[in-house]
Structures are given as C-alpha cells and as structure tokens.
C-alpha cells in the first residue's frame, strides 16, 4: 500500500511538471525575437488597452536594454508589459518600482516598452508608447531601429504616434527625423465608429438628418442618417455617416437610452444597407465592426418584449413660491427647481485641492416650478394639456400630438406673464449687477439619475428693458420648450407621467463671445476602470455638443487628476484629435491641468456625498460643461450631471 501511494504521488508530480512545462513561457508561444511576416503579427496581436480609435490592432514589444534583445509578446497572453517582464525575463520588482524605473526614469531604465499597432483603415503600422512614459526621442529612435531590424517592416512602413504633448515636444527639440502620425491624422482616417455598442431589432428607415427629432421616427425604427443630427426621437438603433464626439447630444441620448449606434462613413453608398432599407433587420454594434441582416418578426418580438425600458418617476413640489438664492440650493432641491439648478447649487460647496477654486457664472438664482404652474393655471393651459394627454393616450396619433403641442407652446409664449412675478425677476437681476442673463431650462426630467435629457429643452438670453431680448420672452420660451415634441417623446420612451413634468429655470450671467466652450467626463471613456478624464473643447462659440458637419474639436484624455500621484506628477495630456478651427490647442497645457483638478474635486464630491459611492470610483463619471471667457481666460463651470454609460 505504501509503495502504491508513493507511485501515485510520483505520477501526479510528473503530471504537474508536464502541465507546468506546457504553460511555461517560451519562445514560439509567449514571444518571438523575430517577426517575419504579417501572419506572425496576426498570431500575436491583441486588442489595444484603450479603445479611443476603432479598427486598431496591437502587439506589445519589449526591448531589453542590457541584453540588447527585442521581444514581440503574445499580446493575448500578457495584458501588460509588466507581466511579461516578470514571468519571462525574471524581473523581480513590484509594479510600482517597475513603473518608476521603466516609465519615469530615462537614464537607468531596464526596458523600452511599446506597442506595435496596425491601423487598418490606413494600412499603417504605428509605434505607440504609454501616455505615462517619459521616453526620450533618442530611445524612441533606438526602438524604431530595432523593430525594423527584427521584423518584416521597412523604415517607411513604421511611424511613431505623437499622441501626447510631452512626446511631441521632445521630438521637436531633439531634431530626430522619423516617420510620424498625429492623432488628427488617425482620427480623420477612421472609417467606422462604435458610438454605443449593443444589439437591436428594427425597421431600417432612411431619414433626413433634419427629420431625426420628429414624429416620423418610430421607436422600432433603426434610423439611417446621411449627415449630422442634433436631436433624435426614440428609436431602436442608429446608423450614421457623420462621426460623433463622445459628448455630443446625439451620443449622450443614445447612451442614456442604451440605443446601439454606429458610424460608417460610406454608409450612404453601402449596397447591403440599400438592399435592407424598409425591412425588419437585426443589428449588432461591435468595437471594430457591425452586423446587419434581415430578421423575422418572431425573433424581433421576443427581443422587444425582453428589453422593456424601466420607468423613471418624476417628483414635483410646488410649495416654494419665491425666487431661490444659490446658497439655498443643493442636490435635494430637484423636486422644486429641477436637476440643472439643483446640481449647480451643489457645485458651490466643492473645495479644490492644489488649484484655483471652482468659478461659477455670477448672479445665479433659480425660478422654481411654482411660477411655471401658476402661468399655466392663470391662462387655463393646464386644462388644455390634460385634454391633449388624454386624447394621445386614447389614439396614439403622433401627427395630431405634434400639432397640438405646437399650439400649447405658442399659447405659453403669447400669454401675458404675471406682472408681480416679472417685476420680482427684473429687480433681482438689477440688484446683482449683471443685466445680460441666461435663462436655462431646469426640469425634473433633466440631469437626474437615469435620465440626462441632453438637448431636449431650450435656454434663452434675457435683458431687462431690452425690446428684442426681454426677460418675459426668455422665461416663456424656456417654459414652452418643456412641450417640444422630441422632449415629450423622450419622456414617453422612459414611461414618465407627462402630467408630473415641470419646468424650473436656472438664471445666471450670459457669456457672449466666449473664448472656448467644452464638455468633460470625469472618467476614462476608452479604458474601463482606469485613470483619466475626457475633455472635448472647441474654440469660440462653435458647438461641442452639436457640431456642424466636418467640424472637429480638441478631444483630450488628461491624466493629471491629483488623486493619482504617479500620473499627476507628469501632467499628461493625450490628444485623440484636434480642432480644425485653429492650429494651436484650444486650451494650454496649464489650463488643462487646472480644469482637471477642478473636475477631480467635482467627481470626488458627487461620488462621496451625492451619489454615495455609486460603482467604483474610477468608473464613476460626472458630465461637466465649462466655458473659457475673456482676455484673462477665466474657466467657468456651468453645469454638472451624472454621466450614465
């Protein structure tokens, strides 16, 4: 029996050694020292860690400076360079020491660490480095030469991607000449963009962009657009030929609804889509490609039944009957002043570490729901709305609905404003010293958890005593926008009780002739659970959220969040693309750092005090709008709301 047990133990030990041996890192399965063909590249490539560009492939490379040896890594087996260096090259440093030695230090590093990327639309190989890498231009040139020597590539086929300001400046000062690409060249070279991944069933309908927000779009349509659209009525899916910034109104609406959306630059001439127009189809949006095919009603019906949208409840409190000072508003004020004003009030409580305090637009106050409801009741418009809602519930006639809502909006605008209320608002404006004021929608169906309402309502400028831009007209136009057709349909899509929708107004100074405008998300949209904030900013008053066709803005990932010491010391600014309205960056590097530290404070405050640790900190995002104004380029934060992805 003892001899049998010994034999069994020995057999198991041999089997274990065999298994370990089969999985032990070795050349041919874990890495190559020569990359001889495109076939070998395909065998070892993997997805890039960041999905900021579509149709990009990646193969990790390590150059051992002591051994003068190059390794092409099996990038599906080793997610990070560190793992390969530890398991194959015998590196015994912990991750922090490894990062300090090989990304921060330039004179005593052990390895040069890069990615050999392939961008399919341009058929271009790109040498890319971590945004945190302080690698010198000479070291880049050394790795470039090693890659050419030990691969099938010739010198003109491999370019360096200059995707950070730090790397670009190091190359400019070095005088080294290597083939290179800018982020702008990669961005405009894309042919495909996965705006919102997912799957859906619907009828493929070709819609003119200007009709995207109208009643012609049905919730079971897959809308096919050949141009830019600012609004979109609820639909099953979207195919567009116009690239979207990640923070445009159209993008945010699709993300909030979880509506699959893709951009295919040549979609207007795609023969497959043309053959499927008008038919019931299945569509799946993936990171680098998409699937469309004809579908059956049976499969579509099962999918629609399974994917019902959750109901969003609205709260309204009409007991606040006076104008509300900013210091009396916080995130709990949604039920009487709306989401935008409530979040704006919360911003005043935020302290910024290691940077200038958050600057809010001056002269701010809020008009609560009470005055909107008073206006309706004084002119009998509340009863008119009740009749419209009852008829629509009975007949679901969208054409009639659109006509009747237009009548309601006209009635709200033409009815006289209560004189006591108007005097109260104008006196308040004159007291604060700012006369040109912006009246901004602040509903209980906007900027709330589960519903962002991006682009649904309107903001207007009002000036006391001005005949063309009167305060009365501004207030009534904002109130009337609650009943825009696309806003109504959006609320219907989320099964809201339309009778409980109320409009408040956030009022603050206006910004004519702004220097720059932008939107930021306090999370990395391109890499899950990782550092980095995304900033989209444009020069002047050209819109970031609803850009004209062919206009691109600065799209930045900034890693200078002061919560992360390793990245913060480097103040990293990575460009995805650049504005095509001017040659220089819209924001200076110093301005990006200041803004990012303010964004970090906003993120921390809302995560810890408002939404009480909703998910992981890295994946928690606030959607923040900002302005740069005046010759001294003051940064103003004008809006913050929860970002849902």
Overview in brief:
This protein has four domains: 31-187, no CATH class; 192-306, Phosphohistidine domain (Glucose Oxidase, domain 1, 3-Layer(bba) Sandwich); 324-509, ATP-grasp fold, A domain (Dna Ligase, domain 1); 516-642, ATP-grasp fold, B domain (D-amino Acid Aminotransferase, Chain A, domain 1, 2-Layer Sandwich).
Task: Lay out the secondary structure.
Layout: H1 2-23, E1 31-32, H2 38-44, E2 56-64, E3 69-73, H3 81-87, H4 95-104, E4 111-119, E5 124-128, H5 137-149, E6 158-161, H6 165-174, E7 180-181, H7 183-189, E8 192-196, E9 198-207, E10 221-225, E11 237-240, H8 249-257, E12 261-264, H9 271-276, E13 280-285, E14 290-294, H10 297-306, E15 324-325, H11 334-337, H12 339-347, E16 365-367, H13 369-378, H14 381-395, H15 398-414, H16 419-432, E17 437-443, E18 460-462, H17 471-480, H18 485-493, E19 503-509, E20 516-521, E21 533-539, E22 554-558, H19 565-568, E23 573-577, H20 589-610, E24 622-629, E25 634-642
Parallel strand pairs: 5-6, 6-7, 9-10, 10-11, 11-12
Antiparallel strand pairs: 1-3, 2-3, 2-4, 4-5, 8-12, 9-13, 13-14, 15-16, 16-19, 17-18, 17-19, 20-21, 20-24, 21-22, 22-23, 24-25
Helix pairs in contact: 14-15, 15-17
